[in-house]
Amino acid sequence: MGDLVAVFVIWLVAGGLAEWATVSWINSGPWDSGPYFYVASNLGTVGLHAFDFLLEFAVAIFMLVVVMIAYSAVRFRVRRGERPSQAPSQSRYNGTFVGVWIVGSIVLNLLFWIHPTASGLEAVYAAQLPQNNKNALIVDVAARQWEWIFSYPQYGIQQAVNNQGFDALWLPVNRPVEFVLKSYDPAHNYENIDYVIHSFWIPAFGVKEDVVPGQTRYLYLIPTHITSTKTNEMVRVQCAEVCGGGHPYMEADVHVVTPQAFAAWVQHQKHLQASILNLEGIVGDES
């Protein structure tokens, strides 16, 4: 009994220090991401909380095993000049210990299945319900080899680009976004072409959705922090499905901005789009 008490006390001290270090590590990153990846959406936060919860339990269990092994190696070792038969009495099997360990393992696994697994999945499912995403910003996403094309039908923006003419995704912070995902080429919509599967993935948002030819898929999320690809490369659109030779380069910049900055960007896009249409009209008239 004395050995069990000693192990328990040592575990409380060592485990407490390990938990303190773990919690400090968890809270050290931007927006409390810590050892987890850079998170900037409500869906990513679900994964972040699950990771933190499991990590804290794993550290406690790991320290218990380490303390038991270290204590046993020191306490029950054969000392110099001592024969093994003279060592303290040892037992190779303890039914109580085995029973407690098995029951404890079952309880922990049931706990982890309920939370964060089932509770996290429920949160993700609820986040995808249209009724929970009122006043959502609609972004039509066209995936083609090898480009992401973003349009904003609510604002009449047919293709959002930056000042260099590259596709870019702009989102207002804390507003629900409805991504409408299709695999096709809006500029060359041939009837007999075989489009391929792409996968819409923004690492910092913690979710990806396959974009399948002939299907329209929907993805709802809420950007939770003002950020951009320039701030962290995890904030980017990246294809996560091998789709041909240009697959590694099928990406686009993402900007999460204030509502005021987004409104200004919308006006800039409208002006830019009108300028392009006027230029095309002039070229068409001259030809």
How would you summarize this macromolecular structure in one to three sentences?
The chain is of the alpha+beta class and 287 residues long. Helix content is 42%, strand content 18%. The protein contains four helices and ten strands; from the N terminus they run αααββββββββββα.
Task: Give the arrangement of secondary structure elements.
Layout: H1 2-26, H2 42-75, H3 95-127, E1 137-144, E2 147-151, E3 168-172, E4 177-183, E5 198-202, E6 207-211, E7 217-221, E8 227-228, E9 236-239, E10 251-257, H4 259-286
Helix pairs in contact: 1-2, 2-3
Q: How does this model look, in words?
A:
With 287 residues, this protein is α+β, with helices and mostly antiparallel strands. The chain has helices at 2-26, 42-75, 95-127, 259-286; strands at 137-144, 147-151, 168-172, 177-183, 198-202, 207-211, 217-221, 227-228, 236-239, 251-257. Strands 3, 5, 6, 8, 9 and 10 form a six-stranded mixed beta sheet that branches.
